[in-house]
Amino acid sequence: MSNPESAVIRIDNENHVFPVRVGTQGDLGIDIGSLRASTKCVTYDDGLANTAACESAVTFIDGEKGILRYRGYPIDQLAESSTFIETAYLIIYGELPTRQQMSAFSQKVLRNANVHESMRHLFEGFPNSSPPMAILSALLNSLGCYYPEMASNNRERDLQTFDEAAALLLSKVRTIAAMSYRMKHGRPFIYPRRDLGYSQNFLHMMFTEPYHEYYPHDDVTKALDLIFLLHADHEQNCSTSTVRMVASGGANLFASVSAGVSALWGPLHGGANMQVMDMLEEIRHDGDNGSRFIEQAKDGKRRLMGFGHRVYKNYDPRAKILKEACTRVLKTLGAEDDPLLEIAHVLEEKAIHDPYFIERKLYPNVDFYSGIILRAIGIPQDMYTVIFAIGRMPGWIAHWKEVAENPKSKIQRPRQIYTGHTERNYQTMRERSNGAAPDHTLEPHA
Ligand code: CMC
C-alpha cells in the first residue's frame, strides 16, 4: 500500500475523512479521534487487535518478518553484545550509554539494591504459600510509601525524581523477588553484595546460604542476563498497556508498574512460561511425545502453551535466541539430557509442520524455552513469571516515562458498545419477591 494521507469511512452514504498517521517504519494508523463527534459511532475492536492506543518510540516489531528492535537496535545484536543493565538504560533513555553514563547508572542501580529494613516485616504478613507474583505486585506498590517524594501522583514532581526512581525500581524488583523466594522456603534473607553485577547479585540473593556463598558458573549468569534482556520490552503488550493506562490517570511510577505485574501474571501473558513446564511434564508423563496434547490443542480443548502470539506471525526472534541459549547452558550444566528439552524439540517439530499451526501461523514464543533454562539454573517454577517481571521492568519504566513526559497525553478511557438492559423501573424487595414476607436474616438492614 502507498502512504495514504487520509482515509474515508462511509456511513449512511456520507463520507467522513480522517487523517492517517505514519510511523518511522511505515506503520499506518487511521486517526479516528473525531469519529464519534462527526458520526456518533465508535470503532469496535475486540482485544484491541487493530488499535494503536498511542505513539511510542521504544520498541519496533514486525510480526510478519519476526523483527524486534529496541530503540532501533536489532534484538539479536543486543543479545550478542549488550547486557541487561546496558539495554535497560537504552530502553529507558533512548540511547546506548557512554562509558561515564553507564558507570553512573550501574552505581545508582547498585546503591539501591537493599530494601528498607522495615520492609522485611511486610513479608511476615504473607502466608508462606503466597504466590511470589502477588507479593511482588504488593511490595512494588508499597515502595511508593517508602519514597513518597518519588510517588506524589504529580507528574512534574514525579518526573523530577524519575532517574532515582527508575534505578531504584530496577534494583529493588530483583531484591524483592529473591526475598519472596527465600520467605517461601523458610530461608533467611540474603543481602545484596556491592561487588556483583545485576544478574549475579540476583542469583546470590536467591541461592547463597549462611556460611555457604553461591558462585554461579559464568554461563549461568549470562543465560539469566540474556533472559532478562530478551524480556526487557515488547511494545503494547497486556502488561505494558496496563502500565500506560494507570500512568495516563497520573498515577506514580510505583503504582503503575505494580499494576503491570498483576497484568503479567495471567497464563496467556507472562504466566505462560510456568504453564509450558506443566505441559512438558504432562507430556513426559503421557509418554507419547505430545501427540495427544497437539490433538487436544487442534480440537480447541486446550492451548499449546508457549506457542502463538498476537503480533508474531512468524518465529518469535526471542524464542530463536533462547532455543540456542538453552542448548548451550544445559550443556554447561551437564543437563543436556533433560527429557523436557527433548520433548520441547519434538513438540515444536510436530507443531510447526502441522497444518493447523501453519494455517494459523503459530510458532514458539519467548515462553517456550525460557522455563527449561530457568529449571536448569535451579529456579523454581513459581518464580518464572517473576523473572519475566524483573526483565520487563525497563520497558514498563520507559512507557511510564513516555506517558508522563508527553504534555498532550490523555487519560485512557475506551468506549463500549452497551449490551445490557434498556431503562426499567426500580421494584421494591416485596415486589421482586411476589409479596413474600421479608427475611430479616438475609437482609438485616431491610
Ligand atoms: N494453541 C492452539 N491454538 C492456538 C494457540 C495455541 N497456543 N494460540 C492461538 N491458537 C488458535 C486459536 O484457537 C484460534 O484458532 P481459530 O481461529 O480456529 O479460533 C487462532 O489460533 C487465533 O487465536 P487467538 O486466540 O485469536 O489469538 P490471539 O492473538 O488472541 O492470542 C495468544 C495470542 C498468545 C494469547 C495465544 O496464541 C495463546 O493463547 N498462546 C498460548 C499462551 C502463550 O504462550 N502466551 C505467551 C505469549 S508470548 C509472551 C507474552 O507476551 O506474554
Notable features of this structure?
single chain, 446 residues, mainly alpha, Rubrerythrin, domain 2, Citrate Synthase, domain 1, three-stranded antiparallel sheet, 6 strands, binds carboxymethyl coenzyme *A
Please explain how this structure is put together.
By secondary structure, the protein is mainly alpha-helical. The protein has two domains: 47 residues, Rubrerythrin, domain 2 (Single Sheet), CATH 2.20.28; 319 residues, Orthogonal Bundle (Citrate Synthase, domain 1). The longest helix has 23 residues. The radius of gyration is 25 Å and the shape is globular. The mean pLDDT is 94. The site of carboxymethyl coenzyme *A has 22 residues, from loops.
**Spatial strand order of the main sheet:** 1-2-3
Q: So how many helices? A: 20
Element order, helices and strands? Answer: EEEHEEEHHHHHHHHHHHHHHHHHHH
Bound heterogens, unique: carboxymethyl coenzyme *A
**Shape estimate:** globular
Helix/sheet category: mainly alpha
Itemize the secondary structure elements and their pairings.
Layout: E1 6-11, E2 14-22, E3 28-30, H1 35-39, E4 59-62, E5 67-70, E6 73-74, H2 75-81, H3 84-93, H4 99-111, H5 119-124, H6 132-146, H7 155-160, H8 162-184, H9 198-207, H10 218-230, H11 238-248, H12 253-264, H13 272-286, H14 291-298, H15 317-332, H16 339-352, H17 355-359, H18 367-377, H19 384-405, H20 429-432
Antiparallel strand pairs: 1-2, 2-3, 4-5, 5-6
Carboxymethyl coenzyme *A is lined by residues 47, 234, 237, 268-270, 272, 297, 300, 303-310, 360, 362, 365-367.
